[in-house]
UniProtKB/TrEMBL annotation:
Region Disordered: start-end pairs: 1-35
Taxonomic classification: Eukaryota, Viridiplantae, Streptophyta, Embryophyta, Tracheophyta
InterPro entries linked: KIB1-4_b-propeller
Pfam hit, one: Beta-prop_KIB1-4
Protein name, per record: KIB1-4 beta-propeller domain-containing protein
Amino acid sequence: MEGGEGEEKKQQLVEGEKGEEEERPSRLQPPALGTNPWLVYSHGKRYRNQSFYDVSGGSCHLKSIPEMRNKLIWNYSYGWLILSHASKDGTTLPKKDRDCSLLNLISMQNIKLPRMTNFATSYVLLSRPPNDPNCYVMCFPLEKQCVIFCKVGDVEWIEKELQDLGLRPDEEDYLGCVSTYDGQIHMLRSNKLFLVEIEDYHVTCTDLQIERSRRPQLSPRVQHLQSMVESSGELFLIYIFDFGRYFNHFEIMKLDSENKKWVSVQNLKDRAIFINLHGGPIASISTKEFSGLKENTIYFTLPEDRFLYHYNLEERRVAICMPCPNVTQNWHQPMWFFP
C-alpha cells in the first residue's frame, strides 16, 4: 500500500484515542511513573504479569495490565511501547504474522498496527510521536537489506530494498544499529552513518560522509555489538564487547560533526546510559536529576537472565543486582521505559 487505502480502513486500525474511562483497580494499571527510568519485565503464564522496577528509587511493582498481556515488548520510542503478540507457547520468535500495537503507559492509548513477522530480528522505532501526522513506524531487519514501514492506521507494511533507496551494499554489508538523533533517524551500516528520512511514504538514505568508525583493538574473536544514543545534543556510538557471562567491556565514541569523524570518549561525567544488549531501546539521562543513579555508568541487561548490570567507566568493572525477585518463570527480556 502506498498510503491510499482511505480513512475508513485507517480508522478500523485505531483501537482507542483514549484509555478506558472507568477507574481501574491499581493492579491493572501502571505504577505512578513520574519521570524516573523504569525497567519493565513481562512474565508468567502467557506473559500475564508485568513487573516495573524503578531504577532510581529501587522499588518493584507487580502489575497485570490487560493491554500488555500475552504481548512481547520489542522497543520503546517517544514514550510508547511497541508490542507484538506472543505465540500460544510463549515463543519469543514468532514464525508467522503477529498482531502489533503501540501502547502509551501514561494515557493508556492503545493503537493497533498491521500484522508482521520481522519484529523479532529488527530495530523498530517511531520516526516521530504518533500524534504527529508525519509519524511512521520504522522497522530495520537485521537479516534483510531493506526498510519496512507504515503509518498509524495503515492496513499493511511497505518494504523498500536498500538498493531502491540508492544504497549499494558491499559484500560485508551489515546493520550495526539505528537511533534517533536531533529528531531524525540515523542508521549505522557497515560502520557508515546514514540519515534516514521519510515523507509521504518516500524514504531516502543519505550517506553523511563520516569517517568510518574504527572498532577498538581487542581480540578479534570477541563478539561485539554496536549501539547509538543521543546525549545532551550529541551522538554517541557504543561498542559492546561480550567476553561471556558477567563480563562485558564498553568503548564509547562521540560524533565530531565538524570534522566528520568519531572520537574516543573516556568519561560520561554526570550522565548515565541505559541499553539492552541484542536490541531494544537505548537512552541517556543526567544523574543530577535522580539521586539514586550512578554517574559515568552504563546500565544494561542481558537476554539470557533477569539481572541488572552497572558498568562504571572509570572503574572499568561491573556490579550486579536482582531488580525483581518475583520474576521467576517464563519471562521475556526486560525493556527500558522513560516517561
